[in-house]
Amino acid sequence: MDGDPRRGGPPGQARAMGRAKAVGQPEAAGARSDGPAGATGPASAPRIVGAVWGLLVLNTLGSAGARTIVPLPRSLIQMVTMGALVTAFALALALNPRLRIRPSAFLLLLTLLLVPSVISSLHLESGFGALFRCARLALFLGTLWLLSRWWNGSLTFVRTHIRLYFAVLGSAAAGLLISPGAAMPELYGGRLVGALWPLTPPQIGQYAAVVVGLTVLLVVGRQADRLSAAVIIVPSLVLLALTHTRTATLGLLIGLLLAIGSLVLTSAAARRFFVWAVLCAVVAAVGFASALRAWFLRGQSQENFSNLTGRAKVWDALLAAPRSTAEKLFGTGLSDKSFGGLPIDNSWLAVYHEQGLTGIALVAALLLVLGGVALLRPPSLPRACAIFLISYCAISSYTEAGLGDASPYLLHLAVAASLLAAPGTGTAPPRRAPAIPRRRVPRWAQERR
Questions:
Q1: Among 70, 145, 149, 234, which one is least packed by beta carbons within 10 Å?
Q2: At what angle do helices 129-147 and 47-59 cross, to 10 degrees?
Q3: What is the 3-state secondary structure (H, E, C) of 275-325?
Q4: CA dist., res. 141 & res. 164, Å (int)
Q5: Higher pLDDT pick, 248 / 2
Q6: What's the pLDDT at 411?
């Protein structure tokens, strides 16, 4: 006999249906094993999406920094970074020729930020470079819109983000091994800089903090084994310590505190990590208070520390500068984030200087939208990663510029937006499971039944 009809058909057909249920259906529905439980979303992102993201990372590395071992002309670096952005846009367009995009309040607000940027840049107060920066921001946002098709709340972009920035940290570590003097010059107070690619200490500290924070959350969420995570976390922490970057360190600690706190009620691993982290912090604060204080001060005087290494003087001069009504509303145009030849080093004041009060309102709305959506989501690992990235960018905005222009901070927030995207609402239609051919039953067997 071919099988019992009361059990749904022949055994071969039942086994085929079982295999389809175990393997075929999740793949056909586009489900991701690293997303929320039971979530299904659009088709998984092709590998070339990671290459596009890597080109965006290369574009936001910048061209300013310490002297490298092999002198690199700034014009050459700018050519490489802009070429990376153009290539990223072209690849994203080739991947998404039908322009299927995902609705995103984050990207919409960033696109609206282009309006005051263009209006203020047309006056050419910052020169023709302002229009060039507007075109760069437009290409940057266009690439993110094209990639939004694959934002489905999974951890795909988190893993890509970690790998790419760990590779950047690897270049800084290689420069340290090749030429320690060039990697830790006296010009920067003996802090770690990029000796192969011009990277400043705050940049390296930012990348190290983000890599460490996201990797720790993957371990807590049991999405990464401890050995491979230690290979990433330990070197990154060493590089972070060598940069003496206070903002990145505080952003890492506070961001992890908020992210793991969001998992405490639903994850035993998060509770254990939280308890051990508090105990280690107490022991470090008691036993190594003097060493931590010396590292935090970086040999600065109390006066220099109180005015944030001279930043406060630039901020006061920027706020005291006379401005017309149009400049107050729309700013003076995109620039190199400096005022009077000195870096502004504050995202809010940089946005006010370049995009006016309109820009500040849009950037504030952007952070509030992402933070509000994160609070409304149920506890999960993607939500925790998004909370970490949002809180880190918010903390860093006080002493670092970048929220109003193409920068690593916008890439961090884009990853957070991809994590907060509701699964199953993407524009890519789900693929149907292949039909399982039914086994043909001979006529004589049907007559016997």
A1: 70
A2: 160
A3: HHHHHHHHHHHHHCHHHHHHHHHCCCCHHHHHCCCCHHHHHHHHHHCCCCH
A4: 20
A5: 248
A6: 97
